[in-house]
Structures are given as structure tokens and as C-alpha cells.
Specification:
The protein has 344 residues and is an alpha/beta fold. It has twelve helices and 13 strands.
Length: 344
């Protein structure tokens, strides 16, 4: 990324080098394309993230092979050539949050491809920390697992938190059936007894939602009242939990309108726009709103195990690295049904 709002440029730069004993250089097998990449490239998150050090390499969903290990990293049992998936954050391991296992709350993190300083995986090689590596069985092709590292991880983290609240007879709604939403649907269908309703503005993504395990799918209008249609399916009661994978003002309004009294709104999608919810909705309905920020290292390990068991699958579309700009355009235009991955 040479400048905000400008097309991505394929360029030759110096390969990353080890800078710390815990560093690992990974030869990238694939990097996922996320809505966050579209927003960062547009400059929409400058206020929250600060201005990136240009030129900057995007890419926070990364898998590949160990290429080089720092001295301390080499002592952790990894060897050159090992296939790995990468937790999206580089965490310190020493702060209170890391010691509690909540590494995504690390007090001194680096976020490759996001933070504007740490380069991501839209490249042939990238530097990360040994704490971010999740080992795969030797001989595994890591490319199909790429969407697990953010889209899948965020969905699993969100669903896992609410498992104790989802009982037989409950209904769960997933708003937005793109890459993240399809994971949420699969996980709800396989790990909970809930009836699963999925909504989306795209008929193709609704077909994908059905394939992912949704019991009912509903076509939504971008600015329409999808919440009313969902409430009709529950005889006016509303659903017990909603997973909003869009995170914009109209979707949050719809999601809140779907909930029953005492329901839970779990927000996975993100935007900088304010959301239209009054405190009367919180109190009068006694609803809970929960945010989700990627997930823990342990969450990712568990999700890889679910993938290995065939419980979740990753629908992905491959692009060459020099087609990165086209991948962003396809995602922004809604032409990507699952998750796009760049393959160097």
C-alpha cells in the first residue's frame, strides 16, 4: 500500500530479517483478504489506528512454512519447513492478559497488516513471533486453512463465549453470511442445539449459508427492516442470540430488533459509524451487547482441531499475489462469496 485510496502495487523490497530471539520468518503460503484490508486501504481507520508508515504491507490472515528461527524460537521445537498457521497478533507473553491466556488483549502487541508499523503477509515472507505459530501436521497444505486465522477465529471466539447461554429450543440469528458469517453458521449448527437463521443481501451468500448449515435463510435489504422478518419466524418472540457479522448502523438496528427480552447481541463486524441504539432498548429489553476481537491462541488451536475433524470447512477463492488489488475490489463489490486468499 503506497497511499490511502490508491491501488495496491506489487513491488520488490528487502526480505524481513530476524530482530529478536523470539522472531520467526515465515515463507507465506497464503494470506487472506479481509474487509479490514478494504477499510484500511481506503483510509477509513486512520483515526483509530493512526497513519501507516508507507509503503505498508497488508495481510493479517496468514499461513505458511517456517523459514528462519531466532535462537529462543528455535528452542520451542519448530524446525525450518514446518507448516504453520499464524495467530494474527504478536503478543508479549509477559503482561497480565497474556499470562491469563487472553493474548488478544496483550498490553504490548504488534498486529501485522493492521497496526501500520508491522508488515503483514501480502508478500513472500513475513516476520512474526514464535508465540503466534500454531503447528500443523507435517505435510499439511496450509492454504485451505488460511480463513481460520481471522474470519474463523473471530466467529469461533464469539460462538464459544455464548455456548453456555444457548439451550435446546433457542434460536440464533447470523446477520451477514459472508466469510465470517459462514463460519458462525457452521459452528452454531455443529456445536449448539439452536435453530439457526441467516440473513444477507446476496442470494449467492444465502445459498452458501444454507450449505453451511442454516435452518432458514432470509433475504435482507441494505436499509430495510430484516428484524421484522426474523421476529415473524419466531411468532413475534424474537431470537435468543444474534451474531452481527456486518457491524454497520442498519445491520445493528436490525439485529437489536430481532432479539427477545433478555437476548444477547454479539457484534463481530466493525465500522467507525455510530450505531442507532437507545438506552431504553438496553433497559426495557434487558439485552446484552458483546464485542469480539479476533480470539485467543487457544481458540485458534481448537478451531484447527475442528477443521481437522471436518466440523468446519473453509470456502475460499484463490488469487495470485499480483492480483491483490482485484481481490480487494471483488470483496468490496460483494463478488466474493467466501474468503479470498492471495497465494505468492
Amino acid at each position: 500500500m503506497q497511499e490511502y485510496g490508491e491501488p495496491l502495487v506489487l513491488d520488490e523490497v528487502a526480505a524481513p530479517q530476524l530482530e529478536d530471539d523470539n522472531d520467526v520468518i515465515v515463507r507465506i503460503a497464503a494470506a487472506g483478504v479481509c474487509g479490514s484490508d478494504v477499510h484500511i486501504r481506503s483510509g477509513a481507520h486512520v483515526e483509530n489506528l493512526g497513519r501507516a508508515d508507507m509503503p505498508y504491507r497488508l495481510g493479517h490472515e496468514n499461513v505458511g512454512f517456517v523459514h528462519e528461527l531466532g535462537r529462543a524460537a528455535a528452542a520451542q521445537g519448530f524446525e525450518v519447513g514446518d507448516p504453520v498457521v499464524l495467530h494474527p497478533l504478536i503478543s508479549c507473553g509477559l503482561c497480565r492478559s497474556c499470562r491469563a491466556g487472553n493474548d488478544m488483549y496483550c498490553e504490548a502487541p504488534a498486529f501485522p497488516g493492521i497496526d501500520g508499523r508491522t508488515h503483514g503477509g501480502f508478500a513472500e515472507f513475513m516476520r512474526t513471533g514464535v508465540r503466534s505459530l500454531v503447528p500443523l501436521v507435517p505435510g499439511t497444505d496450509p492454504v485451505p486453512l488460511t480463513p481460520l486465522t481471522d474470519a474463523g477465529l473471530t466467529a469461533y471466539h464469539a460462538v464459544k463465549k455464548l455456548l453456555p447461554l444457548i439451550a435446546p429450543g433457542h434460536t440464533a440469528a447470523v446477520v451477514g453470511s459472508g466469510g465470517v458469517g459462514q463460519f458462525a453458521i457452521q459452528l452454531l449448527a455443529s456445536l449448539t442445539p439452536a435453530r439457526v437463521i441467516a440473513t444477507d443481501v446476496s442470494s449467492a451468500r444465502l445459498e452458501a449459508a444454507t450449505a453451511a448449515g442454516a435452518d432458514v435463510v432470509i433475504g435482507a435489504e441494505p436499509d430495510g427492516d430484516g428484524g421484522a422478518a426474523v421476529r415473524d419466524l419466531t411468532d413475534g418472540r424474537g431470537v435468543d442470540v444474534v451474531f452481527d457479522c456486518v457491524g454497520i448502523a442498519p445491520s445493528i438496528a436490525d439485529s437489536a430488533g430481532m432479539l427477545c427480552r433478555g437476548g444477547v447481541l454479539s457484534v463481530l463486524g466493525a465500522s467507525d459509524a455510530p450505531v442507532p441504539m437507545s438506552t431504553a432498548q438496553y433497559t426495557g429489553m434487558e439485552i446484552s451487547v458483546i464485542g469480539n476481537y479476533v480470539g485467543t491462541y487457544t481458540d485458534l488451536v481448537e478451531l484447527v482441531a475442528l477443521f481437522d475433524a471436518g466440523t468446519v470447512t473453509c470456502h475460499h477463492q484463490r488469487y495470485a499475489l499480483d492480483d491483490a488489488e482485484q481481490a480487494l475490489l471483488d470483496l468490496a463489490a460483494g463478488r466474493m462469496i467466501g474468503r479470498g486468499v492471495l497465494v505468492p
